[in-house]
């Protein structure tokens, strides 16, 4: 794949505080990359470095094969959409969209063509003569996206653009942003702390923590084969269930032992071939557990008690206790269970993820 953005050994410090640490990242031309992580992980800082809004301490940034490390934001050929709409309140939507183009000295006919094209793509043509105060939150964010779109840039940067919207508007605009990418095929980098946005929008997700990228892969790869226990815990709601114990090899076969319970690992695929025995974490997602009659064919079965039920309509979440452990199980939306019920759950260890106790990396 042709590279659109290349980041080589990028570092950024504020005094003695290292915010980005020797970071490397290649973004393919036309790719939708999401930077995902908790607050303070460095994702917005990285985006601001790409945009030229922050001066880096070390390393280089290339956009379209050109070294832009020390170029001004206006020279980088990017369009940026911020968390706040940052629209000029005294101007109409059309005025906001055309303002930057007028300052750049573009001909009036070209400005009008670009504004109308962006308005048509974003379905805000009827709003061009309105001022921001007369718009809903979703309409304002569309206008903010339109202002970036008229730049006709090869690269678009989004810094948590939907975080100020309510849940329904977020879902609607998430669909529109995905459709926008499918129409334009521009390179897009999108920062969010919302894993649903990341999973639904991205071609690839970069999970960040402490100024580093822990895993860079497709949404499916990250969800099903997380590189570390941190990534496994961060992705998925409710989080992955974990058992603490040890990985044991007996006669060429592997098993996981937790307390007096043994999980056979026939069918489990180890990341780098057969590992050494030792302390480990065993993780299984709530939706990979079954209950009721389905447990009859499960290689592992556990008896528990229902502690909490969360009916969500499409499915039901149950928090259960098994001995001293608390587990989450995702059940059918019409599951007939209540607090205090006895329940048997089961799962296939082949669908699990095992992490080394010392490094917390996937085995």
Task: List the defining traits of the structure above.
alpha+beta, Rossmann fold, 2 domains, 8 helices
Ranges where pLDDT stays below 50 over 5 or more residues in a row are none
CATH structural fold name of the largest domain: Rossmann fold
Q: Can you name the CATH architecture of the largest domain?
A: 3-Layer(aba) Sandwich
How many strand segments?
Answer: 20
- Strand % is 35-45%
Number of domains: 2
The multimeric state of the shown protein is single chain
Mean pLDDT: 92
The order of strands across the largest sheet is 6-7-8-3-9-10
- The secondary-structure element order is EEEHEEEHHHEHEHEEHHEEEEEEEEEE
Radius of gyration: 25 Å
Organism: Roseibium sediminicola
InterPro entries: AAA+_ATPase, ABC_transporter-like_ATP-bd, ABC_transporter-like_CS, ABC_transpr_MalK-like, ABC_transpr_MalK/UgpC-like, Mo/tungstate-bd_C_term_dom, NA-bd_OB-fold, OB_MalK-like
Pfam families: ABC_tran, OB_MalK, TOBE
GO molecular function, one term: ATP binding
